[in-house]
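Note to self: the last two entries modelled the partners one at a time, which told us nothing about the interface. This time every component goes in together.
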Amino acid sequence: MGDRDEQGESERWIIVTNDDGVYSPGLRLLYEAVKPLGRAVALAPETPKSSSGLGITLHKPLRITRMNLWGFEIHAINGTPSDIIHVAVNELVRSPSLVVSGVNIGDNTSLQVILSSGTVGAALQASLLGIPSIAFSADVEGPERLAEDRDYAERITLVARAIAKKVLEEGLPQGVDLLNVNFPSRLTSGTRVKIAPPARLRYMEYVEKREDPRGAPYYWLYGRPFPAERDTDVYVVHEEKNICITPIALNMSPRGSYPHEELAPLAWKAQNTLSNIP
Amino acid sequence: MGDRDEQGESERWIIVTNDDGVYSPGLRLLYEAVKPLGRAVALAPETPKSSSGLGITLHKPLRITRMNLWGFEIHAINGTPSDIIHVAVNELVRSPSLVVSGVNIGDNTSLQVILSSGTVGAALQASLLGIPSIAFSADVEGPERLAEDRDYAERITLVARAIAKKVLEEGLPQGVDLLNVNFPSRLTSGTRVKIAPPARLRYMEYVEKREDPRGAPYYWLYGRPFPAERDTDVYVVHEEKNICITPIALNMSPRGSYPHEELAPLAWKAQNTLSNIP
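The predicted structure of the combined assembly is written out below.
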């Protein structure tokens, strides 16, 4: 780096995590991306914890195993992505400046997917604790692309570093709690970087009924892509094949006045029911 | 019932589910609450699926087992609360008018808890599909209160029925995707029904380090209640001991103009990085 930020950078602690587990090439890639920006500490679940959302482990003890896989130390933890954020800020990095999560194998676009994603879950948990965070995901089928397609991996590394550097230097805009960044399946010098909100749905789920050899029914759940609305993260990543940066706010309240005037009669009805019980 | 809605009511299908599983007294209670309002269909996971959020099962087949526990049919499914919504709308109830989820053993207050809750997860999944939904939870320590404290259970039944009836008759207000209802640990005729937004945090998580008999360290994660901000769901349920109705919108975008002007320089920086790769 070598600019005037150099001294400040040595004080900045960055937590790097990945819900696909310690062996994910996405973890390595993201660690390399943020290493020049501060003191990076890598933590990940021992085993993949996709679709774990914000789950927390309360009923079994957690272990931390230190390993060295690619020339840097990784802390393997037998817990969920959210557990890892709590262990990190309690035991390893008291005041992190940033949490980066990913790069996930597979995109995390749409609220439907975001709300069940372990990658975004770790970032959301960090945001709840007031730590700026960024989730990164790539629309790839398997880990090979991140491990073996060097051009693709390098482009992700440089773009992720640019985004992380900007957030470290300037913070997130007022009212934004985290950034959810999705890379398309190919990156060229012509790929655009767009800002767009999340779509609501990514998949419509269907059920296929079958019979086992004994004649008993069983069911497969399978998703089919839901048509993407224009100017949403799904559209940017899957239709336009561009990079999408989606600002997320931890606020699920309806817009407008509060308490919601239109709900007042409902609350009154409930109140009335309760008050009239002898 | 016997009012002019009687004919209409016979056409209304209501999905009743519960993340604590088929044996939860909360499922029975909620079924009894909505039974007079339409055709109620009960579905639940075979085993408890708390903290499962919006996870979906794609890698193993699902089974539906019909059982009769308390005088009505319950469909037990070896999946998550979100799976159950998809199985229900694909196989059992084509166009439900309402999904009710709960009554959960333990409250689901604050975004931190809401985002990891299986009870709210089922309701959120229904909302994503455009079905009005209501999640109900009670601040009780164990299932006994719902099973054995008849006054408490009856009050919950009547209030839940009043809320569900109002939503069936009038729908949810524009911009509201689901209601998250939390009951305090005691209900009297003096208990108030309030409308309040979710707090951000319910627990601050800590880590306690211990050593096993062989001297190896392990860690317990444990939460301590986070001080409740006034006029939030946590405050209403835990400080005021009142019933809280929290309207939830499936919209996690920051308020204000879009694309977020303040993020434009960050996107530009990322774009510039990518464009300059040879």
